[in-house]
Amino acid sequence: MKEIVLNGKDLTLESLIRITRNGAQVCASLEAMEDVKKSRALVEELVAGGRPMYGINTGFGRFSEVAIPEEDINLLQIKLILADAAGVGAPLPTDVVRGMLVMRANSLLNGFSGVRPVVINTILDMLNRGVHPVVPEKGSVGSSGDLCPLAHMVLPMIGLGEAEYNGVVMEGAEAMAKAKIPLIELKAKEGLALINGTQCMTSVAAHVLADAITLKKTADIVGALTVESLRGIKNAYDPRIQDVRRHSGQREAAENMLRLLEGSEYVTTQGELRMQDSYSLRCIPQIHGASRLAIDYVASVVENEINAVTDNPIVLVDTGDVFSGGNFHGQPVAIAADTLGIALSELGNISERRIAKLIDPALNHGLPAFLVKHGGINCGFMIPQYAAAALVSENKVLAHPASVDSIPTSAGQEDHVSMGTIGARKAAQILENVRMVLGIELMCAAQALDLQEKRKLGAGTEAAYKVIRGAVEFMEEDRVFYKDQKLAAELIADGTLVKAVEEAVGTLR
């Protein structure tokens, strides 16, 4: 796998995922490192001159007016890490922690943070040799950056905290020693430069976004299979309808539906069996399309933030200025993360409505109640719909925006915070729930197809049907079902479903 070169400016979401999930090796651009050296030289010059600079020779937050003696400047950075490592909760997933490391190194490589090259090289060594700090998921208010989780990320670099190495969690110093990575002694500004940023919330959001890009295609695939199982009306997906509405997401979803259903003998035309379908079928382009637009917006924010300088203060080599600003504030990512959660929640909402339609004999156009041959002695898909209803109801709670909340910290010095990391973590849970709901719909649609006269499936839906039937067999009578639900969700999570369909019809929008 080709090594990925970081320069602070052009890291893509795709490359980020290659590093965090596929183990791609990373290195720093030589040109970027030259800028890092110049930035560091300016910091050392200004420190030697005794110029007051926030977080370099002053305290932090409310203590910004407290001058730090020259002999304690390095100690200040170490104490900052110790003080901020106050996280709680379960550890963040490994891919998210790797994302934090990648993005922090990438941000520092812009040359506005005043750290030594050894700091960046240590992060890159940790990535390449698989030293992953144990970072508790809770404790950040999203401003001044993700102080708490990023402090936990730094602990192993200075021989503290815990890290996972070769699949085993151990003391941070031990992990670094086994990986043969020297510990670092933090110098002026370096502790602050390592933790004053949005890399935790952005890493969580980026990984949810990467999975959401797959999930939006999955929603179209599963929806199309349901349309077939209910002998839905394909006219609703005609491009002329979408063109007069003008929304790109709607056009994309409708285009996917027609490609997936191409050649299907299950779908009908307007007036053939009925004049209109219910909204959960007819309005798939409009509803899925709206989520697509939201996902596109989130992508623009996340891909920008991956390469952003979110430090404070900012060191400007050209002018010699050190400006204290607010680039650490997570509000852009916070609003995007909340938007992502809402967009994903809606994909789950409409999926659950399609499940409810499939199992209801008053709505499913002649299919057996709860999609089982011998109802009464068998409950069929009655209770899987309960599970889907529970998940989408939970998502409605989780979709409440975190970014509209704020609580003052640091004795009022930090009087507005973003809660962006909470928003991103909520979006991750919503994503997991929606996968499960779509998995249940996928099983229901396949069951419904098997309960009626066999016809030719669409070009894409046939591939989807084969995938689900390769993992979950037809329900002849009630059986323990939770394992099947998990299998269906895994086909969605690992991309198996989308990959099989795209092999049949080409890349979906």
TrEMBL record:
Protein name per Swiss-Prot or TrEMBL: Histidine ammonia-lyase
Which PROSITE patterns would you find in this protein's record? PAL_HISTIDASE
Subcellular location field: Cytoplasm
The protein's PTM annotation reads:
Contains an active site 4-methylidene-imidazol-5-one (MIO), which is formed autocatalytically by cyclization and dehydration of residues Ser-Ser-Gly.
Q: Name one GO cellular component term.
A: cytoplasm
Enzyme Commission number(s) of this protein: 4.3.1.3
Q: Does this UniProt record's set of keywords contain Cytoplasm?
A: yes
Pathway as given in its UniProt record: Amino-acid degradation; L-histidine degradation into L-glutamate; N-formimidoyl-L-glutamate from L-histidine: step 1/3
Task: Tell me the GO molecular function terms.
Answer: histidine ammonia-lyase activity
Q: Which organism is this entry from? A: Cloacibacillus porcorum
